[in-house]
Amino acid sequence: MTPTSTPQPPRTPAPPASSALPSSYEAALEELEQLVAQLDAGQLPLDHLLSRYQRGAQLLSFCRSRLQAVEQQIQVLEAGEAKPWDAA
Questions:
Q1: Torsion angle of alpha carbons 70, 71, 76, 78, nearest 10°?
Q2: Of 2, 12, 62, 71, which sits 20 to 30 A from 43 (CA to CA)?
Q3: What domains lie within the chain, and their CATH numbers?
Q4: pTM above the 0.85 mark?
């Protein structure tokens, strides 16, 4: 007796997760905003959610490191004294 296999529904392959870092903070932030919108929409299959979440974590880390680098440069420019930001 040979076991019968039940037909599986076709799976849509997960989109390729780009592991390359963006060229700029702005590009990373834009991609991160798009990922958040996709996750919030709740329309992605479960296997896609994990890859999108991982990419978002990677982008968030990139953005944080870029912000820290800029903050350090500002402190050097201001002789190590952090001054409050006056946006006015």
A1: 120
A2: 62
A3: 25-77 (1.10.287.1040)
A4: no
